[in-house]
Design a protein that fits this description.
By secondary structure, this protein is mostly helical. Helices cover about 80% and strands about 0% of the residues. It is built from nine helices and no strands.
């Protein structure tokens, strides 16, 4: 088995594993499945997977480690991340169910809906800069000493693994919506509140970093 394939498969495992903890993309995928449809949910996941791939690649090629060598950088990133998570969590908790599109909805509207979902997934990763720190830590531990080609292969694998996980979440959420009916909206609200809690934790982590540097 070639090293490129090995690092690709390792990337797939890392991408899937890092998608499991609660995060904004998981919440957005669940929310899209409950309030819209499974296609938009998958589009959100695809956007998140592409952004994960880009951040992972940044971590692998060494830009990320250079950023976090400065001790003032991590707390700033965690603070920004906390604000983003809290804001998105609040929006998720307040969101209302969306009426399904009629059977005769135009392809243009459908494409716009999917494109909107994709951009949401990308934005939730890029607006959450602490994700870069996470990828640097994970990739730095698992990909030390890899060649550029192996790094690219691993980053692609991470994107594939992330997409696989988000797609699974989308279909599970869609199934849950069909089982729970209108009560399913409470699932996104509960997850949104959990996201707010994680955002507060992220801001607390930023404060902890700052105090540790000062002391």
């Amino acid at each position: 088995m070639s090293s490129l394939l090995i690092y690709f498969l390792l990337g797939v495992l890392i991408g899937a594993a890092t998608g499991i903890p609660i995060g904004p993309v998981n919440v957005a995928v669940i929310d899209a499945a409950y309030r819209h449809n499974v296609r938009r949910a998958v589009a959100v996941g695809f956007g998140g997977a592409v952004a994960d791939l880009v951040y992972a690649l940044i971590g692998i090629v060494g830009v990320g480690p250079m950023l976090v060598k400065n001790p003032s950088v991590p707390p700033i990133l965690y603070a920004i991340s906390g604000v983003v998570l809290i804001v998105y969590g609040i929006l998720t908790v307040r969101a209302q169910a969306v009426d399904p599109a009629p059977a005769g909805a135009s392809e243009e509207n459908s494409a716009r809906d999917l494109w909107g979902g994709f951009l949401l997934g990308v934005g939730l990763i890029f607006l959450n800069p602490a994700t870069l720190v996470t990828w640097v830590v994970i990739v730095g531990a698992a990909m030390a000493g890899v060649t550029f080609a192996e790094g690219i292969s691993a980053a692609i694998g991470i994107g594939v693994g992330s997409l696989g996980w988000f797609t699974l979440v989308a279909y599970l959420a869609d199934h849950g919506k069909k089982v729970l009916g209108k009560k399913a909206i409470w699932i996104t609200r509960v997850v949104g509140m959990a996201l707010i809690a994680y955002g507060i934790f992220s801001i607390g982590r930023a404060v902890h970093y700052l105090f540790k540097e000062v002391l």
